[in-house]
Amino acid sequence: MRTIADDQFSDQLLDRLRRVRKVRESASRERTKGQQVERNFECVSEEPADLLGGEMPWRFRIFTRRLAAFNDAQYSAGLVLLLPDRELILCRYNGKGHYHWNQLERDQAGPGAHIHITTHRYIVGGKKPDGYAMPTDRYSTLEGALYCLVADCNVGGILSEPGTPYTTPLFQ
Description:
Elements: H1 11-19, E1 22-24, E2 31-33, E3 36-48, E4 57-67, E5 75-82, E6 87-94, E7 100-102, E8 107-109, E9 114-117, H2 120-124, E10 132-135, H3 142-152, E11 155-156
């Protein structure tokens, strides 16, 4: 299986990867890593990873993280693309525990909850691929963030609670 070069990750491909139907493959349980409590779900796409030259599905991991000394503002839920040679976070739904600075746009997302999106511009610009973030009021809890991620990224097999009223999906 071949790898995908950074410049091949167009915004259209990144959007397609976020939207492709995914199904949870493995169960998850909480585990503590340092000061964080983490859960991971392995998922596969229902379509082949055509850019990798095969009929195998795309592989993903969904994670949730929160501080072990629970702070209801410090959490994250994310979608990671698993490639043969690396992992690429496609999006992250963060709590309101910090401000985020968008380096290329020179603006701020915060102080509330915000959603990080991996973009072609950040990948080829040598920045953190998921370095762009936009503010949101769609969730206010980790459960709400996971609920929005599951809905936005077309994931089946993960039960989640909205936490706050759910609005229009981010990726359509």
